[in-house]
Amino acid sequence: MAQNEYDEQNGRTRADAAWSRMLAGNRRFAESKAEHPWQDRETRESLIDEQTPDAAVLSCSDSRVPPEIIFDEGLGDLFTIRTAGEVVDEAVLESLEYAVQHLRVSLIVVMGHQNCGAVAAAMKVLSGDENTEDEGFRSILMREVGASVRLALDSDLDTAEDVERIHVAQTLEALVTDSAVIRNAVHSGEVSLVGARYKMDDGKVEVLSF
């Protein structure tokens, strides 16, 4: 078997296993049956010298949506990056590239969420309820999330839920477009991308793409 065929099959197998485990953990969380795995002293000490996470997660900084809790994961399981509105900047991109190149993660998850404040703010500004000359609107947060709002409106989609889903898709596209490291890893099959949205009302993660 050629090396690239091996990498593709091995990467996909690892990604499938990691995502299945994360979804199982989310089901436990949503059903109030969380096990809080791998949070004991033995695990902590085993990770002192190195880490080998299966997945990298880019999610919103919102205090209500911590990935490790939502997916019922433990120490060393997830390489987590959080920004308001899961916005991508240079630091985020290079952090994800580090996860791919050095930690060899097989899965990158971009997770938005219900009632996202960044989405609500961008929608409010673009609707004319706020001054578009406000400094906040010119920030990376408003530029990036605002672009997703405009795309949704151009497609006749006007609810916050629509924008939240579109913003996840746009963020995934940005990762592949802006990073040769991520793009090449995805094309070779070494890394899989997942789009997801956390629903606060029932605690479940909605799978948008895999």
UniProtKB/TrEMBL annotation:
Sequence positions that bind Zn(2+): C60, D62, H113, C116
Positions of the UniProt region annotated as Disordered: 29-53
EC numbers, comma separated: 4.2.1.1
GO-annotated molecular function: carbonate dehydratase activity; zinc ion binding
Keywords assigned: Lyase, Metal-binding, Zinc
Coiled coil location: none
Cofactor detail note: Binds 1 zinc ion per subunit.
Biased segments, Basic and acidic residues type: 29-47
One GO-annotated biological process of the protein: carbon utilization
Signal peptide: none
Gene3D superfamilies according to UniProt: Carbonic anhydrase (3.40.1050.10)
InterPro entries xrefs: Carbonic_anhydrase (IPR001765), Carbonic_anhydrase_CS (IPR015892), Carbonic_anhydrase_sf (IPR036874)
Catalytic activity: hydrogencarbonate + H(+) = CO2 + H2O
Cofactor needs: Zn(2+)
Keyword Lyase: yes
Family the UniProt entry places it in: Belongs to the beta-class carbonic anhydrase family.
General function of this protein: Reversible hydration of carbon dioxide.
Protein name: Carbonic anhydrase
Source organism (scientific name): Bifidobacterium tissieri
